[in-house]
Every structure is written in C-alpha cells, then in structure tokens.
Write a structure and sequence with these properties.
- By secondary structure, the protein is of the alpha+beta class.
- 51% of the residues lie in helices and 20% in strands.
- It has eleven helices and ten strands.
- It has helices spanning 4-20, 25-40, 66-72, 80-88, 144-172, 176-212, 216-241, 247-252, 254-269, 287-308, 344-355, and strands spanning 42-50, 56-62, 92-94, 116-123, 126-136, 272-277, 312-320, 323-330, 359-364, 370-377.
- The strands form two sheets. It has a five-stranded antiparallel beta sheet, sandwiched between helices. The protein has a five-stranded mixed beta sheet with strand order 6-7-8-10-9.
- α1 (4-20) runs parallel beside α5 (144-172), α6 (176-212) runs antiparallel to α7 and α6 packs across α9.
- It is elongated and about 75 Å long.
- The termini are far apart.
- The relative contact order is 0.09.
Length: 383
C-alpha cells in the first residue's frame, strides 16, 4: 500500500499533464474541481471565478449530481465563508464550516458539509478565483499536507487557465494562424520540457517507494525533492507560455543543467551516467540555442528511461572545427529509427535540431544500444 502523500504526489503528476492539455476554459474549470477532489480526497470540489466587483461570476462544482444541484437552486454568490476566503486572499482550513463566524448556513436540499479547505488560484499575479474542497474522506479535517497539495494544484490550474484564456483571446481576434502557431509552440514546450520533467518526478516518487520501508528518511527527502521539482515545473510553464528562457538554463547555465539532468537520470533509473563536457564547446552556442539543447537532452534521456532498459549512458559535448556536437550513447535494447513511428517526441527532436540550423543523427549500435548526435554549425572557431 502506498503512503497517502506518495499517492497524492503521483496523482498530482497526472493532474499537471491533464490540465496542460485542456484548451477550453469551461471544461478546464470543471476538470480542476474534479481533479482537486480526487487528489486531496474530498467528497466535493468547486472552482469559483471572481468578478471585478469581488463576487463570484462563475461557480463550477464536482461531486454533486445534477438532480441534487437542481434541488439546491441558485449557485453561491460568494458570501459567508466563501466571501471570507475571497476577502482574505489566503488558504483557509476548517474542521467545521458552521463554526466560522461568517458561516450563513446552507440552503434546503444542500448535502451536509463539515470540513473545508479553500485556496486561491493566481493567474498573472492576480487572483482569478478560488478552489474549494469540502468533506475530507477518511478524516475529520483536511491536513497541512492537503493544503500544500491544493496550493500546488492551484498553481498548475492558474497556468492552465492562462493558457486557455490566451487561446480564447487569439480566437476572438480572428488570428487563426497565430492560434495554431501558439498552440503548437506551447504543446512542443510542454512535451519536451514540462511533461518530461513531470515524468522524472514520477520516477523519483516510484524510487521513494522502494526505500520507504527500510529508509523512511531518504524516502522523505526524495518526496520533498519531488515537490520542489513540481514548483520548478510550474515556474517553467509560465516561462514557456510567455516565451522566456526555461528557469534551469537561465539560472544555472547549460553545463550545470546537463549535469543536473544526468544526476536525475542516475537517481531515477539506477543507470550510470558518464559526462564529457569539453571546456569551450558549450560556449560556442548562442544563448538562444541553449534552451533547445537542454530540451533535446531531456527528451532523449526520458526516452532512454522509458524504453531502453540501459545500465550505462554517456553524454558528451565537444567541438569539431566550427561545429558544436552533443552526443548521447546508451547500452540499452536499441531500436531502428527508420522503423519506429514518428511520434511527437522524435518529431520535436528533429524540428529543434533544424531550428538550430543543425541535424540530429539517431543510429542503432552493435551489439546493442543507441547513439544520438546533435550537430550544430556555429559562426566562430573552437575555443
């Protein structure tokens, strides 16, 4: 049996991927409420969208059937406890809703609700709405861990809402081509960066289970690290949407980022990773190119983790005259590139290589393994 927090974190990984793929705002709001209910373990969930005058302009719920909703009648307007949460702008946890001084009771036919958890949903630095959860399952109240999970989910929801709103705005302006290009860019960034990072978090959570029984302290450290990685993912999604450099490259630099990806691969797959990053080779790249290189490394390592069953991986960056060369070689089961279907991942790899003015070579090795080589021409000479 998985520990509750591990199950919540695994569900949160799936939630981030699900929300990132929902472009419709109405469908997205209901999906947020439903996912939050499932992840945190609440019987009922809802999202309230706040209007300019501070009241609820929209209220989307999950967990209440249509017949009960029809008997209840009008949706909440943001008074009582919901109004207090709107005004205070911070998380609110209650063991008993009716004990709150602002509680105004429930209308006829409303299902009983006791425990309560509410957190804000932030979009572009402003409060877009609130996420409400009631009736904690298996306990008398929501925990601090539940609050933390809900806040992380609300952050993911905020990014997804902004993505959906951006697409809506572009549609309304009639910029059909811009919509398609923007959706393609965001989709590519989500696949190459965010979804691969989320997959890495999933591997880390799985590895924490293997040590939970005999080394709970190590398991806790890995789970805390996974939570920190999810925070980074949320920040990166915002960067991708607004066409900023991914946070890891911007803050650490290309060499340190590749080293971190290699370390994560080792921890999550137990494979050995050797690095040979020749001094001066990385500096040959233009700053705008480094983000593409990182995403290529992340995608290739993710594919190796998923499919290769490799025990050893070598990553090298070197200079060959005016060319920058990134090479990743594994000793896994290998595959024949010409015979596999060109899924989103392989297509993105090739498109990123072309966008750099370079090429990507993928070849099977004998007796086993695969070699990926990215070759990027640069203006300057080596060194």
């Amino acid at each position: 049996m998985q520990p509750p927090l591990v199950r919540q974190m695994a569900a949160l990984v799936e939630a981030g991927m699900s929300l990132a793929s929902e472009p419709d705002i109405d469908g997205l709001l209901h999906r947020i409420a439903e996912i939050a209910r499932e992840v945190v373990g609440a019987r009922y969930g809802a999202v309230g969208v706040i209007s300019d005058d501070g009241t609820l302009s929209r209220f989307v719920y999950a967990g209440i059937d249509e017949a009960t909703a029809a008997q209840i009648g009008d949706l909440p307007q943001g008074v009582g406890v919901l109004g207090a949460l709107i005004e205070e702008g911070r998380p609110l946890r209650l063991q008993e809703i009716t004990d709150h001084p602002r509680s105004s009771g429930f209308p006829p036919h409303h299902p009983p609700m006791h425990s309560f958890l509410g957190v804000p949903i932030i979009v572009r630095g402003h409060v877009f709405g609130r996420l409400y959860l009631t009736e904690k399952q298996g306990a008398s109240e929501f925990s601090k861990d539940d609050e933390r999970i809900a806040l992380t989910l609300a952050s993911q929801a905020g990014v997804a809402v902004e993505n959906a709103r951006l697409l809506d705005e572009l549609r309304e302006r009639g910029e059909a081509l811009a919509v398609l290009e923007e959706r393609e860019r965001i989709s590519k960034e989500l696949h190459d960066g965010v979804i691969q990072a989320i997959y890495s978090v999933g591997l880390a959570l799985q590895s924490s289970l293997s040590v939970m029984s005999h080394d709970p302290e190590m398991a806790k450290e890995r789970i805390d690290g996974s939570i920190a990685q999810l925070d980074d993912v949320v920040r990166d999604v915002r960067s991708y949407i607004f066409e900023l450099q991914p946070r890891d490259v911007e803050e650490r630099g290309l060499t340190a980022t590749i080293e971190e990806l290699a370390k994560d691969h080792e921890v999550n797959t137990l494979a050995t990773v050797n690095l040979a990053l020749v001094e001066g080779a990385v500096e040959m790249l233009e700053p705008d190119a480094t983000g593409h290189v990182v995403q290529i490394v992340r995608e290739i390592l993710s594919n190796i983790a998923r499919h290769a069953q490799a025990s050893h991986v070598e990553i090298s960056c070197l200079a060959d005259g005016p060319d920058f060369i990134l090479q990743i070689v594994d000793d896994g089961v290998g595959f024949e590139p010409s015979e596999v279907s060109r899924g989103h991942g392989l297509t993105n790899l090739e498109e990123r290589a072309r966008s750099l003015g370079g090429s990507l070579i993928i070849e099977s090795r004998e007796p086993r393994g695969t070699r990926h080589a990215l070759v990027v021409p640069t203006e300057g000479e080596n060194g």
